[in-house]
Structures are given as C-alpha cells and as structure tokens.
C-alpha cells in the first residue's frame, strides 16, 4: 500500500513514547499493542519508523531514539522531575520529521503530547487514544487538529464518553488484538483458580477480587507489577531502601488495600509474569476476573484471556460489554455490585462457559491481522481527509468495517 498519488510503500512513523521498550519486558500495555501491530503492518507492506527507546528489540525499518533505556520508573515522579522526558522524546521526533520528506503519516501513541506536538510538522497524524478520556479536559475539550490531526479509540464505549471536540476528530475505533489468537493454547489442565492479569492499581479492582475470593472460597492469583516493582522481592527492597517508594500511588494503594488480604493460599500475588508462565496461568484458570473500577477503554487482558480459552467474569463497564458475549465467553454483572459477582462465583457459573467459544471469538475478532487491517483503513481515511482542501468539517463517524 502506498500513499495516494505517490510511489513506493506507505511510510508511517509510529510513536511509542519513551516509557517502555517494544516489546515490553513483562508489563507494558501500549508497547505490547505495538509489538502486535507493527509486524502485521510490515507484512502488509507498510514501512515502519519506530520512535522508541534504545532498549526496544522489535524488528522495524528504522528507529528514532532519544533515551537508551526506558523511563517508566520516572513516570509517577513529581511533574517538575519528569516533565522533560516526554518533551525530549517529542523534540527528537520533530527534528526527524523536519529532516526528511518520506514519512507519509505519524501514528502517535504518546498520551497528550502526541495529540498536539505533531500538528504543524507537515505530516498527517493519527493519534490512538488508549486511556481514560475524562483526563485532560482542557486539552480534549478544546482540541483543534487543524485538519491534520485525527484520532481513533480502542473501543466504541471509550469514544462514546469523549468530549464533543475530541469526538469530532474521531474516525472510529479498532479493538486491540493478541498474537495468542493465532496459536493453539497451552496444553494445560483447567483448574478452579481465578486470575487477575493486570497492573495492580485501584482501577483494576484487585482488592475486590481478593475480597471475592475470601467470600466465595475460591482461589485467586493476582499477576502484574505494583508500580515499577515487578515482584515482591523488588517491592520489599524498594520499601527498605527508598524513603520515596511509598509515594507511588499504586504502591500506597497496594499496601493499604491488597497486601492485608494476601495469605499465600486463597489470595496470592505472583508478580509480573510473561511468556509461557503468564499464558499457562491464564489458560489453566477457570476464569479471569475483571471487577473494574473505571471505564476500561481497551481490555488487552480480556482479549488475551479469550485467546487462551479462558472466559472473563466482571462488571459490565467500559469495553467489556462489546468484547464479551455474556453467557458464552463471559459473565457480566452490574458495576460495583460485589454481591452479584460473589453469587456467580460461589455457584461456579464460570465453570459452565465454553472455552472453545472463547477461542473462536478471539480468532474471528482479535487477531493481529484484523487489527492491522483496521488501522490501514484509518490510514487511508487520514490521508484522504488531510490532502483534500476545502473538505467538510470533521464529524464523528462509526467504526471501520474491520474493527470487530
């Protein structure tokens, strides 16, 4: 696929930001999405220039780098200590764009900065929204992309809650995907444990999952990092040696709300898992719990769980209702109704869900190829709109045909 009216392949600068490598080591939501998307784009003929950190190992056509190592450990630092990180990264990308004329489109994944930094770089921009759109109300509420900047969501529910100014720049949504959907699941026996696969933070509801385990007699395994700490040993070391360790909001919440419920049996925290260890834990679970405390926009853990043949039980919040088929691939209760989820789990309703139906849904809807085709559709739309002088004002439109 080449740019309209041009020769050669389409060249896209994909901005992954300065926080984590691509692919990430363990946790890394956006970076994991890009590690899934970029190889498929390249298979479809797109040249990819990746703006990332030097530690990234994903095969691409070119890299643009400011920092040799990821800066995720700084992300929750006071603003006056961390504000220069994203600025330095963006400045490097802008210098790259000004020094060449072969980049057809910027596909940005850098929160806030990516929406405004490239508007005047002379290249059309697609900015993917991966996060809570209630944040940054002044930015989103007054956005003017000047006919060069467009956005997409990762679910319909996410865009439905966006401010009107942001929705006017929206070209639709593309659901997240996982390479696991293309492969057979691990050959593991199905157990009776429940799992929560996510960064341990208040929005993900691991405290609710722990209470549910205690109430119902079920076992739950919590897998994910606490702030920048990937396991209990790392967290204990930080607490013993760094007086500021408790200032991280996820660490403070974990110590207050989750750690008192850990007993090593009914409720366990195993740290951040990846690869075969992560897949085996999820594939052997009776269900993944998602008692979300926010309007989850994308649901990476949900699509990974379905690809591994494991249904999802959670609140009907955010993207979950459009990712799951209740009664077949998951069970959904009213938001914040802990009693209702406890009743489902105590009765073992998750054990009756069809694991083959979960796998089939993942193969149809959440493969890398489906996601990449959705983004190619959006790239075409961005290029067509950005090059058309005197075009009609932007209006919110429905999802691209391949979005799910």
TrEMBL record:
InterPro entries linked: Glyco_trans_1, Glyco_trans_4-like_N, Glycosyltransferase_grp1
Gene3D superfamilies according to UniProt: Glycogen Phosphorylase B (3.40.50.2000)
Gene Ontology molecular functions: glycosyltransferase activity
This protein's UniProt keywords: Glycosyltransferase, Transferase
Domain of life the protein comes from: Bacteria
Residue ranges constituting the Glycosyl transferase family domain according to the UniProt record: 194-364
GO biological process: carbohydrate derivative biosynthetic process
Pfam families associated with the record: Glyco_transf_4, Glycos_transf_1
Keyword Transferase tagged: yes
Glycosyltransferase subfamily 4-like N-terminal domain location: 27-145
Protein name, as recorded: Glycosyltransferase involved in cell wall biosynthesis
